[in-house]
Amino acid sequence: MSRARRRLFARIAILIGLVIGGLYAALPVLWMLSSSFKQNTDIFASPPQLIPANPTLEAYTAIFTDPVKVRFFLNSYFVSLSVTVLTLLVAVLAAYSLSRYEFPFKRVLNMIIVSVQAVPPITLLIPYFGLIMFLGLYNSYPGLILTYMVFTLPYAIIMMTGYFNTLPRELDEAVKVDGGSSWTALWRILVPISVPGLVSVGIYTFMIAWNEYLFALTLTKTPDMRTVPIGIQLLMGQHSYEWNQMMSMSILGCIPILLLFLFFQRYFIGGMTAGAVKN
Amino acid sequence: MTTGGGPLGSTEMLSTFTYKLAFSKYQFGTASAAAVIVLVISMILAFFYVRAQKARD
To answer: I need a surface site. Which of A39, A190, A249, B4 has the fewest CB within 10 A?
Structure first.
């Protein structure tokens, strides 16, 4: 077999492998999408139908006309957006000082920030439950927002510090020569340049906050405070299993992340690699 | 989560076990002990991982 034919053969084999892997990953999601358009009785129909025979929008209308479920989405959006904005603010400030300044205990602080990430969330669950109760933040937005920030901040600070490290110090010096302070150097020069890094960190933060299940379950009690992952689980076993509503709520819950990824894809890939280089 | 702990807890995982102990059976002491065990296990794994990373540099 000539070299060209062997390469063609290898490429076809790789393509087949990728298609199989892609189907393996995508079929559950496609099934979810098709089930959300079925009636509840058709979900477990005996020959399984990928394309529903009687497509219906009843699952989606049931969700949009139920104020409790709409509240789940509003809560999720509000908490995730607040967490993202606050995390980016704090991370930019922290990264600026870690990247541009030397101060006592800097290495210790760095180690602490990194080691917060090494703790598994289930370990933090019970102490945080006690802490939030003690602070009186149970079943409230600030309780959720502050708790999520514990998980999003370490990664955000590390990535932004790495990103700021790639920006030359001559920029800071140019601002100082022109009579600006460190504050202007940060907010008027460094941050506008760092938009790709900010976008990728922001999307990752939003994703973590949006998908958070364990702490949302523990730190909220009433349905008007719960978020989408809990809302999907609450559809199980209250009266009956509403499979089609669960599927459509899952689809609606996937949409923000999907849209973010689609629109900001070039920032995301660039930002991930830019912050990761150590020098 | 798929099996809900399985028949008589045979497919139970440590994380869900901790959660159930704490918030279904209200045994916070035992649940905290289980959480600390999770922490110790992950620290041991992290120790080996960091050592392998340092050996690679």
So the answer is: B4
